[in-house]
Amino acid sequence: MNPTSTPGRPHRGHARTAAAAAVLTALLTALLTALAPALAPAVAAAAATPQAPAAGHAPKPGHSPAPGHSPGPSASPGPSQLPTPVISVGHEHGHGHRGHGHPGRTVAAPQAPAASGPQLSIAVTDGRTSVQEGDQLTYTVQLHNIGRHDVRRLRLVQTLPAGLRLISATRRPATRPGSLTWRISLPAGHTGTFRVTGRVGHTPAQLLRLATVVCASAGSSTRPIVCGAHSDELPAGAVAAAQQGRAAATAASERTRREVLRPAAAGLVLLLIISVAWLLIRRRRRRISRMGSQQPGPS
């Protein structure tokens, strides 16, 4: 009698292989689907980040760097060595002078001096960064003639902030509602100093900062040679800044929460898929084992 194979037993290995392949495919598909939303922002950020040049790299003597190539730190000043940008208004016969910014202080920005015409710089400050109703302020305005020639018939105008009640001003300016005007001459290399004292009164509720602007012009021209400005934070500005800070903190917290929860959710989904797959494999193995034990042996 020819030996015969037991029905069902020769296909047991094939069934296990097919089941394992199906489970592996399902796991990979589910894993990619779950992790894709969490990994997409990180991949996009990494692709958009430019490559920084090597530290200390500098071009060799006689070698010109390629277009778009940035030299290393040895070839450029650090951030602390750079002047603070400030406000400037140019003039057809002269330009402002470079000044360094300070908290609550703004002076004229640099421009290349012209060959002729007034060359001036200006600074204004009250030595404060925040004020409230009832405070007494003293603005100090300094106008510098940095050129080589005397400047005559200068017109210096200070615009007073809304809510400031004028108390006194030096050098007898012409007074108008909301402004003061001085007419002066300034020798080469000299500095003119002007002081204005006032008291902060009631300010509009929507006003966030108390600001003053000072401009210098030549002769009868209304076009400024140079301007400077100073502003102090009012209580309404402090409230607005605090609200903006809280909104930024809330947005950052929400962003962090999403970044943490996405990978956690993906991990839970993957764990669930693995658990279900393991249960299915065990059930299938038990079924195959029962079917094999029920088949009759060879006759």
Report on this structure.
The protein has 299 residues and is of the alpha+beta class. It has a domain at 84-242: Immunoglobulin-like, CATH 2.60.40.1510. Helices cover 32% and strands 24% of the residues. It has 2 helices and 10 strands, in the order αββββββββββα. The chain has helices spanning 12-48, 235-294, and strands spanning 106-107, 120-125, 136-145, 151-159, 164-169, 174-176, 179-186, 191-200, 209-218, 226-233. The protein has a 5-stranded antiparallel β-sheet with strand order 1-2-3-8-5, with no helix packed on it. Strands 6-7-4-9-10 form a 5-stranded antiparallel β-sheet. A hairpin with a 2-residue loop joins strand 6 (174-176) and strand 7. Helix 1 runs antiparallel to helix 2. The longest helix has 60 residues, at 235-294. The chain is rod-shaped and about 125 Å long. The model is unreliable at 1-10, 52-103 and 105-110 (pLDDT under 50).
Topology:
Elements: H1 12-48, E1 106-107, E2 120-125, E3 136-145, E4 151-159, E5 164-169, E6 174-176, E7 179-186, E8 191-200, E9 209-218, E10 226-233, H2 235-294
Antiparallel strand pairs: 1-2, 2-3, 3-8, 4-7, 4-9, 5-8, 6-7, 9-10
Helix pairs in contact: 1-2
